[in-house]
Amino acid sequence: MKRQKRDRLDRAHSRGYQAGITGRPKENCPYQTTDTRSHWLGGWRLAMSERSVFA
Description:
The structure is a single chain. This protein is mainly alpha-helical and 55 residues long. 73% of the residues lie in helices and 0% in strands. It has helices spanning 3-21, 34-54. Helix 1 runs parallel beside helix 2. It is elongated, with a radius of gyration of 11 Å. 18% of the residues are buried. It comes from Tatumella terrea.
């Protein structure tokens, strides 16, 4: 996998994580492509699970 592609997917994951931590709904995902969207949602799900543990 190219570094550029990996960086883009890592960025999508971290943006999804930030959205989840702040409580934004998953419907606010800005990505349309399946691969990038799945990374964003993965970060969002991780943040939501961590949020429920600390709440």
